[in-house]
Write a structure and sequence with these properties.
Two copies of one chain form a homodimer.
Chain A lengths: L14 E9 L5 E5 L4 E7 L3 E5 L2 E5 L3 E5 L5 E4 L7 E8 L19 E3 L2 H19 L5 H21 L13 H15 L7 H4 L3 H12 L3 H17 L6 H7 L5 H12 L3 H7 L6 H7 L1
Antiparallel strand pairs in A: 1-8, 2-7, 3-6, 3-8, 4-5, 4-7, 6-9
Helix pairs in contact in A: 1-2, 3-5, 3-6, 6-8, 7-8
Chain lengths: 288, 288
């Protein structure tokens, strides 16, 4: 049932291209664009206007879409809208969509609104997937593949029966999710180091639950996510390495280089020369 | 790396043959046997003696094994041992083990002991998978496939780095898991209806969490599991339909028939004539 003109891009293994959660800005516009990977995106907490299929659609909070490679899309915040954006860009492996009918749904059916419970479940699975994508554990791509398929199974079920709960997912501990969100808020603000004790109530007890949930400590997660973001920014030749460090909230150039070397094993400039993966400007936009 | 003499059985989609959680009995023995599907099995709460690879292995509590079709195994409870047994029997689809190195591990490496946290995480994922297998939601076999792969990913990670936590799973709410276990205890005792309010502390608040976790109410889950067990017992031609009903704890024959018709759509005797799937006696043993 695939449209002939569509860009298809099936990798040997499912891989995350980028994923991120951030607050959007008042009046922010993400103009029409398309890319050669698939995308799942949730706009939580506030309404927005989605650009899909040549149309502007005013959507309530907790709207979601599933788009395939080559499908043009965008969004614009009007009035007082500034949703939180949860985006997953991924290359599906061959056979990834087997048994998942959403691959055959018309575009219009793949843009809709979740209820509050469903949105919370989505966010929980998203946070789990995000932790996998920054971890470096055995069978990483198998875990990513299975979690992504569970997200799609949940979306398919929710689309079919709006009120039902799902047996696959359920919201995480709210305190753990609050720490997770503080990390992502700090990242998207380029705020640099996060004072966990001050920002997160009850932190000393929560961080143990956090580690049990995600397999790494809050501080490790913040560092790894900053490094992932650094890689995306480094791929933009218009930014100096000093600028990249300062956008990530590093006050001193050397601190950035040291952290990068510790995590990646090479210096930022060395990495930049050897890896030029992310050339689509929309990636940088999402990450900014 | 497959052994030539091995029975292979790859289905078009991954399917659960049977799965169940039950307390074993003092002195219980499960003699040497093999079957044409794969099996994951946890022995929690108490030590046991496993029969694997022609050997008797005394194992501590929370021992687990992953066995493939054709591999002979069994167990025997000695002394005061009566572990709880969490067994999953499944047919993997073609490609199910892609990226999961456990398929190539020698048998000895596939029998080991989990720590307490890992066992709790396994039980949590097990309960989720078990709910999927009795639900009838869209993409059921895709959800089962992904959850089973996540269980295997977790097992592979735990085997590799005994102390690390995993980012894929985490224990469920203990109150919810207590209700889930009460349901399974009632089932394995053939106790019939369960007085949830009396048996489960704080039941009225927990049942909402239960539904959010598993997608169905505790009572619905009990009914569906009883019906699943009925199907296994009905496949044994040595049991009358009345006996099947009474083993399931139905006091009146008609109550069993009515419940079966409501869930399955046909009477037990009609079902028996048309479906003779489970012929391996070890299945009945597991379910008994």
């Amino acid at each position: 049932m695939r449209v002939e003109s569509e860009i298809t891009s099936e990798a040997p293994r499912t891989g995350i291209v980028t994923m991120g959660c951030r607050a959007s800005r008042l009046g922010e516009i993400w103009p029409w664009h398309a890319h050669d990977y698939d995308e799942i995106c949730l706009f939580s907490d506030s309404p927005t206007t989605l650009l899909v299929e040549g149309e502007e659609m005013r959507m309530p909070e907790n709207s979601v879409y599933v788009l395939f490679a080559g499908e043009r899309h965008g969004f614009s915040n009007e009035g007082r809208n500034q949703p939180r954006i949860w985006a997953i860009h991924y290359h599906p492996r061959a056979g990834f969509y087997d048994g998942l009918p959403i691959r055959e749904w018309p575009l219009r059916q793949r843009v809709w609104c979740l209820n509050r419970d469903q949105s919370a479940s989505f966010q929980s699975l998203f946070s789990r997937l995000s932790a996998e994508s920054v971890n470096d554990l055995p069978c990483k791509s198998e875990a990513i593949d299975s979690l992504l398929r569970l997200i799609l199974v949940s979306l398919i079920r929710w689309r079919g029966q709006a009120d039902s709960s799902s047996s696959v997912v359920r919201p995480d501990d709210p305190e753990v999710l609050a720490v997770w969100q503080a990390i992502h808020a700090s990242l998207s603000q380029g705020a640099g180091d996060l004072r966990f004790q001050e920002e997160c109530p009850n932190y000393d007890s929560v961080r143990h639950k956090f580690r049990r949930t995600y397999g790494i400590s809050p501080r490790e997660m913040l560092t790894r996510l900053r490094i992932e973001r650094a890689k995306i920014l480094l791929a933009d030749p218009g930014l100096s390495i000093k600028e990249v460090g300062s956008r990530l909230g590093y006050l001193h150039h050397n601190d950035f280089t040291r952290a990068f070397v510790r995590e990646v094993g090479v210096t930022p400039s060395h990495w930049r020369i050897n890896q030029r993966k992310f050339t689509d400007p929309s990636d940088n936009e999402l990450a900014s």
